[in-house]
Design brief:
- 72% of the residues lie in helices and 0% in strands.
- It is built from ten helices and no strands.
- It has helices spanning 12-29, 37-44, 48-54, 58-76, 87-104, 106-114, 121-143, 152-178, 184-200, 207-214.
- It is elongated.
- 26% of the residues are buried.
């Protein structure tokens, strides 16, 4: 086990961030049931009482770790459109940013991927918020090429497709964490094509969108 960190004077915000970063590292290395709050406190160089001041129990601590990682990932995958980019290019850039984040934060990404399982209502709530935000971001990119209203049915069907694609992409990126030899560019191409192919099959999409997904 790593040596405990000498306690430093930090603001409450910085101390909490430090604990969450350490939690991401530890939860990313070992199963949830094997991690003890006392261990986190010892490694951070803080008292058990202070640990519980920030987080009432291990479940709340883990949920906070996952939420913090989700926020970081959401920011990392914010890839605004560059001039001349096609819809395919934008989607591909977003998937590559996702995989780049996984590479740069392997423990945090893995903690967010596995956790206690997605049956936990707190974690499911975090997932729901993340999926909603990502869906809205992708819908904005998809409909950016359309002038006027999509119509409620088409918009609903597109949202269903995007939600399904997010789950598909999530799993492919998880597989790449398991096997980093999987080529990132190939995977990003596959993910972008998969969404555009699915969008093209939504009945009633505007002609401009149909043209964009074929470009």
């Amino acid at each position: 086990m790593s040596e405990p960190t000498a306690r430093r004077r930090l603001s409450p915000k910085d101390r909490r961030s430090e604990l969450l970063a350490l939690g991401a590292e530890v939860f990313g290395q070992r199963p949830y049931d094997e991690v003890r709050i006392d261990e986190i406190a010892e490694r951070a160089g803080v008292s058990r009482a202070l640990m519980y001041h920030y987080f009432p129990d291990k479940r709340a601590f883990f949920a906070a770790v996952v939420r913090a990682e989700s926020e970081r990932l959401f920011e990392a995958t914010n890839t605004p459109a560059a001039e001349g980019q096609t819809l395919f290019d934008r989607l591909r850039s977003g998937v590559l940013a996702y995989m780049r984040y996984d590479e740069e934060h392997p423990h945090g990404a893995w903690a967010a991927y596995i956790g206690m399982g997605r049956t936990d209502p707190v974690l499911r709530g975090i997932d729901d918020v993340d999926n909603e935000r990502q869906m809205q971001r992708i819908m904005a990119a998809v409909t950016d090429v359309v002038s006027g209203d999509l119509g409620s049915k088409v918009e609903r069907d597109l949202q269903v497709i995007v939600y399904g694609w997010l789950a598909f992409t999530f799993e492919l990126c998880r597989q790449r964490i398991l096997d980093p030899s999987v080529d990132a560019n190939w995977l990003a191409d596959s993910c972008a094509h998969a969404l555009l192919d699915a969008v093209a099959r939504v009945p009633g999409i505007p002609a401009a969108l149909a043209q964009a997904v074929r470009t």
